[in-house]
Amino acid sequence: MERRRLIELDRKLLWRPYTAFEDHQEQEPLVIERAEGVRLYDVNGQSYIDANGSWWTNTLGHGHPRIKAALVKQTQSLMHCAFAGISHEPAVLLAKDLLDVAPKGLSRVFFSDDGSTSIEVAIKMAFQYWQQNSQPKRTRFISLSNAFHGDTLGATSLGGVQAFRKVFGPILFDVLRTPEADDAQGWEKAIDAIEVELKQNATSFAAVIVEPLIQGAAGMQIWPASLLARLHSLCKKHDVFLIADEVFTGYGRTGKMWACDHATITPDILCTAKAFSAGAFPMAATLATDRIYDGFKGGKERALMYGHTFYGNPLGASIAREVLAVYRDEKIIEQVNQKAPLLAQAFDDLGAHPGVTRTRHLGLVAAADLGKNNYYGNAGWLVYEEAKARGVYLRPLGNTVYIAPPLVIGNDELEELLATIAASIDAAYEKAPWS
Length: 435
Ligand SMILES: *Cc1c(COP(=O)(O)O)cnc(C)c1O
Fold this sequence. Notes:
- By secondary structure, the protein is of the alpha/beta class.
- Helices cover 40% and strands 16% of the residues.
- Strand 2 and strand 3 form a beta hairpin.
- The radius of gyration is 22 Å and the shape is globular.
- The two termini are 42 Å apart.
- Bound molecules: pyridoxal-5'-phosphate.
């Protein structure tokens, strides 16, 4: 279809995620035709480095031959069947391979479709566990300020980014949220606040949920592993479950397989999605301990009444299993640690550029704040346009410009990306300085 006609139909027929009507009508979208490695190609053949790894999913590069082959092979035998009274090899073998690399002590896998559903599963597991294991007053959850756990209603309840939850306030369940934190001391105070609450009211809480080490949607806010370890001890002491939402941080993004590994902890429940299928298929998993699983034994009325149509889908499962094999064979985590210093240096340097107020990085994630922290701010979008003109897709989070590129990005490509970000920030600031 001709490009103009496609955009016209898009504007007429689609309802876009996270997009104001006016922006949909006025902003010029990229029309992407194909992607390969770290680059997206538009219908005119122009290429763009995929700086956010296609919404944080793409770790192995676009069109990885082994991922494609795994998908094609699976299509030839079984594309989907109900997982009710039926089992199949892709789902079972994936569970086995996943538990092999999961933090020790996680022993059960529950499949779902995306990050949000993996969180809904975690909420229901934790809640129902206490309901039927003699502590039904443990009904509340604790989450961190500015947390993001997805857009379904349960996940929205847990979330703290106002932009995503404000309007839905009246239909969300009540969650205890820690005070705002934007430096190491702030984070310490947040954990202190959890400690105080647990000392007084532990028996009213089902679980604490965190994005370990990096709060993605909050603007790539990074917090210390030592505090994660402390939180883990607090949860153990007061017997409140710790849910690790590793939907963004898992699969090597931070330089280890799981962000939890930086603190050598095993959460009671772990959620994985996004890189779980390397951006090739909607698929997610929620992992739990024997203790939690055993709390559902003892009769039909004790079963976890949760599930989705595409549970354990063979195509997704085959892909996710091949992803783990590629991680092993291509030493993906080692690659992250080899490239991380390059990215760290470039973002440290960016801190000295006019208009940049703060930078941070961990593994293959880095962010730069432009002026005031504001989700509806415009500075990030000015830089986005400059980067687009220079062949980089650099979608911001408000006034925060960040990168989370495919983990297999080559050193040359990474250098090109980093140089383009610096040039784009400088050019945007020169044209229209922000405060
Ligand atoms: C993206 C994200 C989610 C939600 O995942 P979806 O696949 O968009 O539903 C949940 N938690 C975290 C930490 C995320 O980054």
